Amino acid sequence: MEETTRIFGIRAVIEAIQGGKSIDKVYIQKGLAGPLFQELNHLVQKGDYNISFVPVEKLNKLSKGNHQGVVATISPIKFGNLDETIEKILTEKANPLFLLLDQITDVRNFGAIIRTAECTGVDAIIIPEKGGAPINADTVKTSAGGVFNLPIVKVNHIKDAVFYLQSSGVQIVAATEKTDDNIYDVEFDKPSAIIMGNEAKGVSNSVLKSVDKKAKLPMFGKIESLNVSVACGVFLYEAIRQRSLQSEKK
């Protein structure tokens, strides 16, 4: 899996981009120059790809061959379109559940979250184009193959998805410690989207200003926070619990 999700060499990466491959991230050697690099740089800037300028030692670790100063990772999945994915789900389901990830950076956290989302029937996961963990071999493995079983959508910014979902009648709930409201006070038995934030910073302040509700988990120990994948599981299963109770009453 690892070898099939990485390509190296300037020309190979250019051809992958022009061929419409799902480029997840492009690593470029610091100080790289020349006409072929300029062609690549124009493509990645125009396509707004996730780019990192790194020392050559990083590229040497990523590639066993002659990388020519460029390595790219290709996602093993094809990412969905926001409008098409959301509209299809809203048409098919009366009470959908979405999961938004605001720059989750650890691939194993990412994979564990995808696995839990798949198990809890999340209808789609939405992630930002930049700043988040890639979908690579580690992600696939940690997700237990869950990446292949539910739509994953990339957007320029998580706020793009927030506004679109809100305009479609979906409530946005942010998991954050920056609130006095408890998770058990939120009504999840309606079209909902849960936002989980970065491992260190949580949900960004600009996103928090746009959400409908904020909720935190009650904490009783000396440690002030849970691992994000664990916290995500609690939020998702609380949503499932409420929805199951409502279904039993009908």
Description:
The chain has 250 residues and is α/β, with parallel strands linked by helices. The chain folds into 2 domains: 3-74, Ribosomal protein L30/S12 (60s Ribosomal Protein L30, Chain: A); 82-249, 3-Layer(aba) Sandwich (Alpha/beta knot), CATH 3.40.1280.10. Helices cover 38% and strands 19% of the residues. It has 9 helices and 10 strands. It has helices at residues 10-18, 35-46, 56-62, 82-92, 107-119, 137-142, 158-167, 205-208, 228-249, and strands spanning 6-8, 23-29, 51-54, 70-74, 97-102, 124-128, 152-155, 171-175, 192-197, 213-215. A 6-stranded parallel β-sheet has the order 7-6-5-9-8-10, with helices on both faces. A 4-stranded mixed β-sheet has the order 1-4-2-3. Strand 6 (124-128), helix 6 and strand 7 form a beta-alpha-beta unit. Helix 1 runs parallel beside helix 2 (35-46) and helix 5 (107-119) runs parallel beside helix 9. The termini are far apart. The model has no long low-confidence stretch (mean pLDDT 91).
